[in-house]
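Incident log, entry 3
Record: Efflux RND transporter periplasmic adaptor subunit (431 residues)
Problem: checksum mismatch between cached and fresh output.
Input:
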Amino acid sequence: MKKLLLCLALVGLGLLVGTFVPSVTDSIRQVAGLALPPPPKGGDGHGHGHGHGEGEKEGPEGHVVMTAEQIEAAKIGVAEVGGGNLARKLSVPGTVTTDADRVARVAGKVVGTVAEMRKRLGEQVAKGEVVAVLDSREVAEARSEYFAATTNLELQQTLFEREQALWDKRISAEQQYLRARQTFTEAQLRVELASQKLQALGFSESEVGDLARRSAPVRTASAGASAPVARTMAGLQKYEIRSPLAGRVIERRVDLGAPIGGESEEKELYVVADLSSVWIELSVPSGDLAVIREGQEVAISAGNGAEPSKGKIVFVSPVLNQETRSARVIASVENKDMSWRPGSYVTANVVVSEEPVDMKIPRGALQAIGGEQVVFVRNEKGFEKREVVLGKGDDASVEVVFGLDPGEKIAATNSFVLKAELGKAEAEHVH
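Fresh output:
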């Protein structure tokens, strides 16, 4: 019993001083005759191992080793650090509308009946293309009047030239010559008036000239002239309606056989719009109008993750809406791919000011690690983590005050891949 108590006392004493005097601990073990486990191999004799086998190498802390092929496969975009401008923007809701300068209402200028509708809803139309044909008594009368005037003009011209020749030879009286000249002048006036009437109905000068050439067989025919006259006068009631601009049919307002142009009747046949450029109508509060001006750039987004479209402000209304106390502002945006549909709601970011900075980086290059803002700088073996101090910023970029030098290359996009790889390497190092 006494020997057991002695052994326990020696063991307790060895535990107290063994940490500081390893030789004493060994002596106590020999005296007590206890088989306690030996210190771990590869340690320092104090119970603290290195955690790695001999010959194992560690990479530098905060580095991610990647080859150029791996960087490309991970779609990590690399950009050079440099200066630029930070933009302050005003965000305003808006609505997509058609460009008023690129919309045409195709109407008939005469009273008639729809004989042909050559375009369907949604089809493309070229400028000057015939889109519809009307049957019109008004057009037939105007053409007949022009034909009669041109025929009479040729006759009066022949008589005048004959009387002038006789008068020059003093064969006929002067009064007869003057009467022939007056009649010829009146015939010229009738042709001009008939031509102006046709142009008022929508005929171009070239079309009026074609009508004059169509009436030529009537003037030159002699015996048996009824057949040429019938061919010339056929189809006088047909009235072709052409599109004033190139675009797309966005509205069709009448059907075949419908009367148009009369009282209480439809006047328009189609609405054609060129949607390659559209307007964005914005309602800007009066307090923000001081920073809005024509010519400013805007970025239009629909909130669906697509890339914003660039545009410019083309109109700022000088008049405020009495109910909303806001002004109507219009921005013009290219729409070649037809991604913006009239009637859609969008958000417009207007650049109201710009401030130059010595260094700026994309916000996508920043990652938060351990409560610090870091970027990944490209080096020969991959990337290294670099803590940065930030300054001012905008929606897309941020100023770097400290931590980078101009000309250094950083991971500008998909930098979260490097953050994940770094976290994975640190986790393996702990274990």
